[in-house]
Amino acid sequence: MKHYSVLLSESIEGLNIKKDGIYVDATLGYGGHSSEILKRIPNGHLYAFDQDKEAIEYSKDRLSKIGNNFTIIHSNFVNMVEELKKLNVSKVDGILFDLGLSSPQIDEKERGFSFMSDAPLDMRMNREDALTAKEVINNYPYEKLLDIFYSYGEEKMSKQIAKKIVSVREEKEIKTTKELVEIIAGAVGAKYFNTNHPERNIFQAIRIEVNKELDTLHTILPKAINLLNTGGRISVITFHSLEDRIVKQEFKKDSDIDELVKGLPEIPEEYKPLIKLINKKPILPSSEEIKENTRSKSAKLRVIERI
Question: Does the 8-104+213-306 domain belong in CATH 3.40.50.150?
């Protein structure tokens, strides 16, 4: 199974790994980042989270060949604090988030993540979740579809696309990715469709909604920062501007000194920043990496350290 881990060496270096440290891979996937972490912690422990049972089975086998000092947790990373608490872990030395879909998930047609092949409208990272893309497309009211397409897809033609979906579904249920792509094309016209590829934005928007990706990120980042030991680090790899904006804002908030106390000779403890930014600007993939894996093109890495 071919999966390419984006910004692999940069994100691992960013964690500044200690041999006996406790590390969390919030997005195990097919084990690319986890394998590299595990190799570097012979006396430590790795906790890895994923919602996808297939990915977990594959990665368990892969990681076992490196060591047995790891624990895989079948859960969304939003539950990280609670799940680690059950295992008596209250502090860690580093956390890695790779927020992209893994290539096998995209390539597995029946998952419905890709607009390139015909498949049922699904898009669930965790197949045990109730909400699917089909549910969103066929049952969300026009206003909600419009909001999702505009907010999560940043698509200029959101209004036309949402209207078209609503009119088509009045006649028949929309069941497949191919049907949806055809509806999008019909709503925007051939010229706009072929030039701007709005299906990318719409599929992204639906996937974010189905998996509550942005809400989850908002919730977990402050908790993840609180999990870190002093000197502990977080590496976050994002793949679109909405995610990157959330990460950037959260890290800025916790690395700034409050305006109220900025000029004081002695900053009170509760006003001191929690973290420092290791890189002010995001780290981007090299041109070699983009050549090798075009899916890495939009990736950005941000790293912080707990102080």
Answer: yes
Show me where the domains of the chain are located.
8-104+213-306, 109-211
What pTM, to 2 d.p., does this model score?
A: 0.88
Place of tokens 């422990």: 45
How far apart CA 223 and CA 274 sit, in angstroms, is: 12
The CA distance from 212 to 124, in Å, is: 10
**Chain centroid to CA 165:** 27
3-state secondary structure of 119: coil
pLDDT in tens, 22-39: 999 999 999 999 999 999
For 212, list phi and psi in degrees, rounded to 5. Answer: 50, 45
pLDDT in tens, 159-205: 999 999 999 999 999 999 999 999 999 999 999 999 999 999 999 99
* CATH architecture for residues 109-211: Orthogonal Bundle (1.10)
- pLDDT tens digits along 77-109: 999 999 999 999 999 999 999 997 655 555 566
Cα distance between residue 125 and residue 127, in whole Å: 6
Question: What are 58's two structure tokens?
Answer: 């594959």
75 HSE (CA, 13 A, CB side): 15
